[in-house]
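[SOLVED] Need 3D model of a two-part complex

Original post:
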Amino acid sequence: MAALLGPNGAGKTTILRALAGLVPLAEGRVVLDGRVLEDPARRLRVPPERRPVGMVFQDYLLFPHLSALENVAFGLRARGVGRAPARRAAAEWLARLGLGTQAEVRPARLSGGQQQRVALARALAIDPRLLLLDEPLSALDVSIRAEVRRDLRRRLRDFTGVSLLVTHDPLEAIALADRLVVIEGGRVVQAGTPAEVTRHPRSPYVADLVGVNLLRGRMHENVIEVEGGGRLQVARAGDGEVLAVVPPSSVSLWRSRPFGSPRNVWSGHVSGLDWLGDRARVRVSGRPSLVAEVTPAAVAELGLVEGMEVWVSVKATEVREYPA
Amino acid sequence: MVRPPTQPFSPVLLVLAGLGALFFVLPLAGLAVQMPWRSTLQILADPGVRTALELSLVASLASTALACLLGVPLAWVLARLRFPGRELLRGVAILPMVLPPVVGGVALLLAFGRRGLVGGPVATATGFGLPFTTPGVIVAETFVAMPFLVITVEAGLRSMDVRFEEAARTLGASRWTVLRRVTLPVIRPSLVAGAVLAWSRALGEFGATITFAGNFPGTTQTVPLAIYIDLDSGRLPVAVVLSLLMIVVSLAVMVALRGRYLGDG
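Solution:
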């Protein structure tokens, strides 16, 4: 799965709509599995209803006058499948997504998470080769997002086509996608794996957007055992696989071991220095490795150069952890 | 307990409001007082009265159907397509709402009459003429009733989220399927409200009908026309019974639409 990441108004949704055929291209081409879906130069354009593309809309757009089952069956019916087989297939999809008992319920009576699953079932039921997800979690209450995100990742594991996610939430992109495309003002500013993009943001904007320290690990009580070594103390207690986010601006660097309130203190080596305008991003290799964001003045005062040893401190309260 | 704040009011305002209410209540009371309750059934069973009632029912339902058939596509064009002259087209389409119906009747005669713009050649070629026939009644009623449907359905289409249609298209629905299975069901409240308003307007139509279709018992004399003729020729009880019947129908329409389709009433 690829994720298109960018601020509001960057043109993310427009790209999805163009891929679905809902807005015509002025130039460029849309090719899926070797089949040209749109090529204005050759006056070629496959209308949306004949593209093998499924779309999950931001606010789901479930048909309010149809039950969950009829919503899922809609695509099959529109593609000429008979009423009985279409309903049977739709019922199977709902059962697969854990909504077997909600088949006859109208969308208005479903919770946000259930609506999202119906929308996913509706898009997948037509057996698309390309699945488009437009901010699939943004309509959900923050408290259930992590759970639904995990659920969504599990559901999509079985999907064999290409999926493209649009989001302005880096965490969502990193958690769901194995390839990130960052766009800004309608242009691609950076593309790569989540690890590459978070490690080497190419503009201050990307740094702000995804330039966070994202650590995977296993949590027990209020300590996270970080994958690849090291441990982090956090404020809250929990259990299981987690993603921990440490904002680079909250990482402090010291020449010698500091004594104070921060719960997490360890040493490492400066493995890189990037200048981004009025800020320096200092990569520190250690257990765990992190990026710290400091001012140029701090770089000068500490005499930071590549290879030197530094001490790192992070307050437990600055670490945000999410179930992975 | 917190008491709801009382509106400050002036006695003058209340008196005027009371007079306004009386102005509506008194005519109804006048009808009720004159109502020949004992002979009501007898009057309604009269063959002439029944013919008018049946004709009114058939013609108003037929014109509602015609208004839906032509009005929904027209509303769709007005709501969804952008083209020069759209505002003008909308103006023309809803003009009959404010036009004196008798003027509508004259205009219909000049268009579809035996010597009319379209009616003339048709009459010459086939010998068929709309005026003074039951289809003529339907045409006249549709002319005054359809704007109510167009304006209501257009409003419904405009307030509808068109992305429902996009969602349907990504699922493989053709434009026709989208219209049938998504658009019309989603705007159903507007559609029902528009059809009911058009129907009640058609049922009460007088001016355009009498001008274009005339007043022939059995073919073009609808209930409003019959009421007028009965009153004119001294059959007051018949006029009163038919009038009250129309009032009952209008009230029923209002009650049915209230809340469900015309806001929260």
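Edit: The domain at 2-210 of chain A is CATH 3.40.50.300 (Rossmann fold).
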